[in-house]
Amino acid sequence: MAHEFHGGEIDSSKDGLSNEQDTQMLAQKLAQHIAKGVIYLIGDLGAGKTTLTRYWLQSLGHKGAVKSPTYTLVEPYNINAKEVFHFDLYRLNDPYELELMGIRDYLEVENALFLFEWPSKGGDEIPQPDHVIRILKTEDEAAREVVIESISAELIEALT
């Protein structure tokens, strides 16, 4: 599914993740190069979206557990005076539910990082992405393929 981006040229990077350590290394690179904006995390159930998010938040300096916001829809974090919002829209029945839960209040936070799992369920209630990260399962249970699309050529260059 193609996504509209915030504007600018779209670059992409494709990589393989052989194990969780590779996922952790990718998360560290993402944390170094993406400080704010809207990120769509796309992948099947069990692909590793929440695992990548956990390592990403830890790379930003989060201490403690990172739980999937499957039932709460959003899990807010304040990491070193940085606001991060992890959304999991899997159980969303209607995008309008986001309006009812006050998503606009979250989206008005300046310079925040917004991570959206299952963004297709958010419809027009969520903003267009700055970066899209697709995590694809492979024949090997432990391995994943990752495709990253971004308006940031610097990010793509750092990942290749």
UniProtKB/TrEMBL annotation:
Localization (cell):
Cytoplasm
Task: Kindly give the SUPFAM superfamilies that the UniProt entry links to this protein.
Answer: P-loop containing nucleoside triphosphate hydrolases
Mind telling me which NCBIfam families this protein's record contains?
T6A_YjeE (TIGR00150)
Keyword entries, A-Z = ATP-binding, Cytoplasm, Magnesium, Metal-binding, Nucleotide-binding, tRNA processing
InterPro entries, alphabetized: P-loop_NTPase, T6A_TsaE
The organism encoding this protein is Oppiella nova
What Gene Ontology cellular component terms go with this record?
cytoplasm
Check the record and name the Pfam families matching this protein. Answer: TsaE (PF02367)
Q: What is this protein called?
A: tRNA threonylcarbamoyladenosine biosynthesis protein TsaE
Family membership: Belongs to the TsaE family.
Q: Which GO terms describe its molecular function?
A: ATP binding; metal ion binding
Name its GO BP terms in alphabetical order. tRNA threonylcarbamoyladenosine modification
